[in-house]
Amino acid sequence: MCYNFNMEKGEEIATLYIVGTPIGNLEDITYRAVRILKEVDYILCEDTRTTQTLLNRYNINSKTISYHCHSTENKEQEIINFLRAGKNIALVSDAGTPCISDPGVLLVSNVKKELGDSVKISPIPGPSALISALSASGISSAEFTFLGFLPHKKGREKIFKEIAESKKVIVFYESTHRILKALDSLNKYVPKHRIVIAREMTKQFEEFIEGHPIDIISYFEKDPVRTKGEFVVIVKP
């Protein structure tokens, strides 16, 4: 069973595990992550239905609790009270590593503020779309700026202007509904930059598309189905 020991107080303390889960292919999970998910008292999920598919695959029966960007303060306090009572909890996102462009970071921050050293926060490393995309892009990742998901409207164009002025590699996430708009903005502000798009990584239709913005726009326009999925966009000056 998973537990941690406070050497100063001589007692067991609860742990909040930050567990990385697959970004697509369910085989991309570590032995340790499976063990921890089986041993904890509760698993916090963005969408319990999505996570349940993974849990069923590995015969994990721990109780799930919904926790996402729309969760109330009462839900957060309930979770903190579980930890205060000595319950071990795992935090997962729908895909990838929690707290990276993810609402889980708010929970972790508030747990630290309210419980301090009376609870342990432990990362269980796993997949990350950001790192996976960079690793296969052929672009040096010694120094880069990660923007997460870009804003839908307010401030969006300002960010593209900042991308145009940056001398660093820029990485951001984009949705199927806005990928063409993002490419149009890149074509407007950085038409000569090298762009790598990672689409549907680890899934059946995984692909990497590379070229100037106009080249990638043309590729997508030839077959609208190509704009479906989840995207990581890498911009090299």
Give structural attributes.
single chain; 237 residues; alpha/beta; Cobalt-precorrin-4 Transmethylase, domain 1; Methyltransferase, Cobalt-precorrin-4 Transmethylase, Domain 2; 2 domains; 6-stranded mixed beta sheet; 5-stranded mixed beta sheet; 11 strands
General description of the model:
This protein has 2 domains: 4-124, Tetrapyrrole methylase, N-terminal domain (Cobalt-precorrin-4 Transmethylase, domain 1, 3-Layer(aba) Sandwich); 129-236, 2-Layer Sandwich (Methyltransferase, Cobalt-precorrin-4 Transmethylase, Domain 2). With 237 residues, the protein is an alpha/beta fold. The strands form 2 sheets. Strands 1, 2, 3, 4, 5 and 6 form a 6-stranded mixed beta sheet that branches. Strands 7-8-11-9-10 form a 5-stranded mixed beta sheet, with helices on both faces. The longest helix has 12 residues, at 73-84. The model has no long low-confidence stretch (mean pLDDT 93). It contains 8 helices and 11 strands. The N and C termini lie far apart (49 Å). The protein is elongated and about 55 Å long. Strand 9 (194-199) and strand 10 (207-211) form a beta hairpin. Helix 3 packs across helix 4 (104-115).
